[in-house]
Amino acid sequence: MKITLITVGKIKEKYLRDAIAEYSKRLSRYCKLEIIEVADEKTPDHASDIVENTIRDKEAERIMKYVKEDTYVITLEINGKLLSSEELSAKINQLGIQGTSHITFIIGGSIGLGKEVLARSDYALSFSKMTFPHQLMRVILLEQIYRSYRIINGEPYHK
């Protein structure tokens, strides 16, 4: 299975880069992982809806350049479906059983995802009703993908 993460913005903090590197290394036994960062747009304070939509559209255009036609796209959205770790594991496993060989997870920028990305999404996933920094979300997502593979393979994981 190939797993691609497409994310908006760069990771500046060393501790987050270290965590991403650790989970990437752990995942290498289970899947081929690719992480693609696209540039984010600066969002002015108190931006109008029109400005925010323009920003989301620009970021969406950058994201869509990397979305392959044959990939199953899972977007991270606050209003997406909440899954337990076991349910996410079952989702990934089921996709593999059905013949999906490539899953792309998309994490948007600070104001969310553009219409084009949302329209291409095969599945909207939420980790919480809370808002998390998108840089931290990358670490949380990688940890959950790693946990999913541990569950799929019947290996111990912390409950």
TrEMBL record:
It comes from the Bacteria. S-adenosyl-L-methionine binds at residues 76, 108, 127-132. It catalyses: pseudouridine(1915) in 23S rRNA + S-adenosyl-L-methionine = N(3)-methylpseudouridine(1915) in 23S rRNA + S-adenosyl-L-homocysteine + H(+). Keywords: Cytoplasm, Methyltransferase, rRNA processing, S-adenosyl-L-methionine, Transferase. GO terms for molecular function: rRNA (pseudouridine-N3-)-methyltransferase activity. It is found in: Cytoplasm. One of its GO terms (cellular component) is cytoplasm. It is an enzyme of class 2 (transferase). Its EC number is 2.1.1.177. Gene3D superfamilies: 3.40.1280.10. Belongs to the RNA methyltransferase RlmH family. Specifically methylates the pseudouridine at position 1915 (m3Psi1915) in 23S rRNA. PANTHER family: METHYLTRANSFERASE, RIBOSOMAL RNA LARGE SUBUNIT METHYLTRANSFERASE H. Homodimer. This is Ribosomal RNA large subunit methyltransferase H. It comes from Mediterraneibacter faecis.
